[in-house]
Amino acid sequence: MAMTTSNTIAPGLPRLVWALAATHFVGRAGGVVRSFLVLYLTQAQHLSPATAGSVVAAVGAGDIGSQLLGGWLGDRIGRRNTMLAGFVGGAAALTALGSADSLPGIWVAAAGAGLTLELFRPAGSAAVADLPPAQRIRAFGLLYWAANLGFSVAAVTAGVLARYGYGLLFWVNVAASLTAALIVWRRVPETRPAGAARTRRALLPVVLRDRLLLAMLAVHVGHFTVFLQTFTTLPLLMAAAGLGPAAYGAVLALNGIAVVVLQPWAVRLLAGRDGSTVSAGSMLLVGLGAGLGAVSHGLAGFAVSVLVWTLGQVGIAVRFGDTFAALAPAELRGGYLGLASAAWSVLRQPGASARCSARSPGRPCSASPARPSSAPGARQAGSPCSPSGGRSGRPCAAGPVDSSAERHCP
């Protein structure tokens, strides 16, 4: 079944693209630490919710920097070397984060993890942008599909793994990063155009003169702002309608399933159409879906709302990478695609770091009890939380911090 779907989305693509898709899947499927980071910090490290939120913000700050740095390095030292540095550096940063037992050390390791774990994304996108234009849309579609499939796997497995201790989450994430690095080392050749180093130009002056790029960045920032609001307002709207967390989880699962199922068909349907028309129509669908959510009062209405804006999400993803790849000079493809990815990362961070403080009184960012095993090299950090507060004095929340808005960007 998986092979049939893959052949539907990307027939006849070079091995490079399949190798990149494998790294995206492995990296996302094994990326289990981030969703449970706040829970690890409040349970195993006994940090306050506000302090845990500041650590999440440090990861977010590093994440933003990684998009810009990954694109810049991809143009300077090559796509392959940048991806290797990101995956190996990410494994080292995660090991340090799981081992740190002081707040400054945790902050530094968290920023390092954010800075390295996403380096592969703009570099991998630049490698796809180096392909002939006729192959780009299908290649970007395959990467997006593989990443979201991996995200869905991580969402299911992370909660199961956490029952055996947060240390296991760190080890799995480290192993996934090293496995992705091995795939790059063995299967991903360098694709940077010959002569790019000799014709190197500074990125910023070129960007400031490129009015079309600036306009497209502004349009997509506006779109992402509306899109991310769906994840902020949807749980509030559903709660006001008397629907509980289980219903919210169900409609979010519908989003993930729809993306994985619809993406291959959307690539075939939309690849040959005008990119501006596809993007504009997709943005309208996201706005329409968000509006439907505002007037819905039952589970079926909210499900329809999610399906509508998911169609828009998929449509944007089909043309997003190709849009910015087409604008970029050959020697600055990494930088252009890094800027595009950073537009998403900048907008998603406030919500990610604020989710702790948004919890209701008496329910800080802790989770259902997990065994307090150490992360890589870490000391034993004490007992987990309990429903009554337990030795830690921290009541347990119902589950992991919602990471739905962390789903792979277009």
UniProtKB/TrEMBL annotation:
Domain of life from the UniProt record:
Bacteria
**Could you give one GO CC term from the UniProt record?**
plasma membrane
Mainly resides where? membrane
Q: Where in the cell is it found?
A: Cell membrane
Q: Does the keyword Lipid biosynthesis apply?
A: no
Q: Composition bias, kind Low complexity: at what positions?
A: 357-396
| Cross-referenced InterPro entries | MFS (IPR011701), MFS_dom (IPR020846), MFS_trans_sf (IPR036259), MFS_Transporters (IPR050171)
For this UniProt record, give its keywords in alphabetical order, as a comma-separated list.
Cell membrane, Membrane, Transmembrane, Transmembrane helix, Transport
Q: Which PROSITE patterns match?
A: MFS
Give the Major facilitator superfamily (MFS) profile domain ranges: 15-410
Q: Which residues cross the membrane?
A: 141-162, 168-185, 206-226, 246-271, 283-309
Topology relative to the membrane: Multi-pass membrane protein
Does the entry feature the keyword Disulfide bond, yes or no?
Answer: no
Q: Where is this region: Disordered?
A: 354-410
The record's section on Pfam families has: MFS_1
Q: Which GO terms describe its molecular function?
A: transmembrane transporter activity
Gene3D superfamilies, A to Z:
MFS general substrate transporter like domains
Tell me the protein's name: Major facilitator superfamily protein
Annotated source species? Amycolatopsis vancoresmycina DSM 44592
